[in-house]
Design goal:
CATH class of one domain: Alpha Beta
Strand order of the largest sheet: 3-4-7
Order of helices and strands: EHEHHEHHEEEEHEHEEHHHEHHHHHHHHH
CATH architecture of one domain: 3-Layer(aba) Sandwich
Largest sheet: 3 strands, antiparallel
CATH topology of one domain: Rossmann fold
Oligomer: single chain
Helix content: 40-55%
Number of strands: 11
CATH superfamily of one domain: HUPs
RNA sequence: GGCGCGUUGGAGAAGCGGCUUAACUCACCAGCCUUUCACGCUGGCAUUCACGGGUUCGAAUCCCGUACGCGUCACCA
């Protein structure tokens, strides 16, 4: 594959969607794999819905995922500009060329007329489409419409009785009939081109070799191919990746939960995990391994192993993958990840003291292996801080009423009071001594202690929790639960 | 409705005519490890590939039909 140039061309009408992120990733992987370029183009021709805010969100999300582009609106490149609204003059030229060649024409129909036509066709049981009313307008008629103040659109003249073949890298050969396509708008009445037109001009001018995008664009592809042909241009290679579905198998939407990349960031997912998960959405690795770094993905990814069937977004699998990455973090990495979460929740000050760092280390010891997302840390953090405890359920009282408990607790309290410093090591030996001196072992000693201190049956190791709390808090907690 | 795409266990997914008594992963269940949970390890989990026909010595794999799901038919991308 020589001169591989691929692009991700989102429209900035909202935060980067998880599906868009997957398209971007696939393009990125192909570009890196074949040592080509990954281009970012902003398709902002929907003036109503486009915003700079969304654009920034898209930039940020892509960068967060580690999908850096070689050419784009912010960094420029040899085929710019990379924002469609800045390319209006370019489109105008090609629109004119099509009009001059008689392959496109002005249409003065009003919305009402179009709607009427649509209703009539539906009433007759025919598929609604534009029938070409303005195809052969006389100069007089045109003049009259202009007098009336009508703003025309430009429509592409779709040739009849033609087979349009899309040779798709993931779907194979897909054939469409041109008769099923009505003359469609390529230039809106406000002088801005439509998607189906602008995308062709840009992909050609930007020398895009492979168009990798979501399946929802498959039905649009014949319209685009027609324009390539009208302009005498060679088409790029197409690859339509299936859609991402929610658990109920309908297209992934808000009601399935978080749909944008930022939301996953906010919920405490790691970019590496999201990338890994996204890669698995529609693509299947050859071997048994499912955990990949970006480098490994670049090495292994191929469009041949991208499935035709829709991919279902399985949040449980994302959580599992995220957990794998959290556990795989080095101590420094996980610390840098935990700190902002803890600070944001008010458990840590802006400026960290040595004591804070010691405490964080204990939290890491207790929770790194346990959580699937960074935010889950907050679900367990109460066990590491403060003198407040509450029994999780009434059932736990029974455990505290067992006969060996008073002795165990008394012995423990003594030890805590007399020990020089609470560290994981001193706590470990302390607990061993309590076990030995009270002649109790296993659950008989550890469960009451755990419940007395945390109010819960389960949680991180006691030798992480106890030093984190400190003598005073531990004793106060015990006081509250067992008196 | 027209056109297009898809349909393998609870979920994802491999499979490209015989090597499949259908990989692998998540989830689930059991056991082990462990002071609990988690982590980790071991084992279990589709007599069957939406359904009905056909082709073939042989089909999850090829063909046709049916059903279901989804996409698309915009002056949205």
């Amino acid at each position: 594959m020589e001169n591989c140039r691929v692009r991700f061309a989102p429209s900035p009408t909202g935060p980067l969607h998880i599906g868009g992120a997957r398209s971007a990733l696939f393009n990125y992987l192909i570009a890196k794999r074949f040592k080509g370029q990954f281009i970012l183009r902003i398709e902002d021709t929907d003036v109503e819905r486009s915003s700079r805010e969304s654009e920034d969100n898209i930039f940020d999300s892509l960068r967060w995922l580690g999908l850096d582009w070689d050419e784009g609106p912010d960094i420029g490149g040899p085929y710019g500009p990379y924002r469609q609204m800045e390319r209006l003059a370019i489109y105008k030229k090609y629109i004119q060329e099509l009009i001059d060649k008689g392959l496109a024409y002005y249409c003065y129909c009003t919305e009402e007329e179009l709607e009427e036509e649509r209703q009539e066709l539906i009433a007759k049981g025919e598929p609604p489409r534009y029938l070409g009313k303005c195809r052969e307008l006389s100069p007089e008629q045109k003049e009259q419409f202009i007098q009336e103040g009508r703003k025309p659109v430009v429509r592409f003249r779709v040739p009849g009785n033609q087979e349009i073949v899309v040779n798709d890298l993931v779907r194979g050969k897909v054939v469409f009939e041109s008769n099923g396509i009505g003359d469609y708008v390529i230039l809106k009445s406000d002088g801005i081109p439509t998607y189906n037109f602008a995308v062709v001009i840009d992909d050609y001018l930007m020398k895009i070799s492979h168009v990798i995008r979501a399946e929802e664009h498959l039905s649009n592809t014949p319209r685009q191919i027609l324009i390539y042909e009208a302009l005498g241009w060679e088409t790029p290679t197409f690859a339509h990746v299936s859609l991402i579905l929610g658990k109920d198998k309908s297209k992934m939407s808000k009601r399935h939960g978080a749909t944008s990349v930022v939301q996953y960031k906010e919920q405490g997912y790691l970019p590496e995990a999201v990338v890994n998960f996204l890669a698995l959405l529609g693509w299947a690795p050859e071997g048994e391994e499912e955990i990949f770094t970006m480098e490994e993905l670049i090495e292994q990814f191929s469009l041949e192993r991208v499935s035709k069937r829709p991919a279902v977004f399985d949040i449980d699998k994302l959580k599992w993958i995220n957990g794998v990455y959290i556990r795989g973090c080095s101590n420094e990495e996980i610390r840098d990840l935990f700190i902002p979460v803890l600070q944001e929740a008010g458990h840590l000050p802006e400026k960290l003291s040595d004591r804070d760092y010691q405490w964080i280390q204990l939290v890491i010891n207790g929770l790194q292996e346990k959580v699937h997302t960074l935010k889950e840390v907050l679900e367990h953090i109460d066990m590491f801080v403060g003198d407040q405890v509450e029994l999780e359920s009434e059932d736990l009282k029974k455990v505290l009423e067992e006969e060996q408990v008073p002795l165990v607790i008394e012995t423990l309290k003594e030890k805590i009071k007399t020990v020089e410093e609470l560290t994981p090591e001193t706590v470990k030996t302390m607990l061993k001594e309590v076990s030995k001196e009270t002649k109790q072992k296993g659950k008989k000693v550890f469960m009451p202690i755990r419940i007395a201190i945390t109010g819960k049956m389960h949680g991180p190791e006691l030798h992480s929790i106890i030093p984190a709390l400190g003598k005073e808090n531990v004793l106060k907690r015990i006081e509250k639960t067992v008196g």
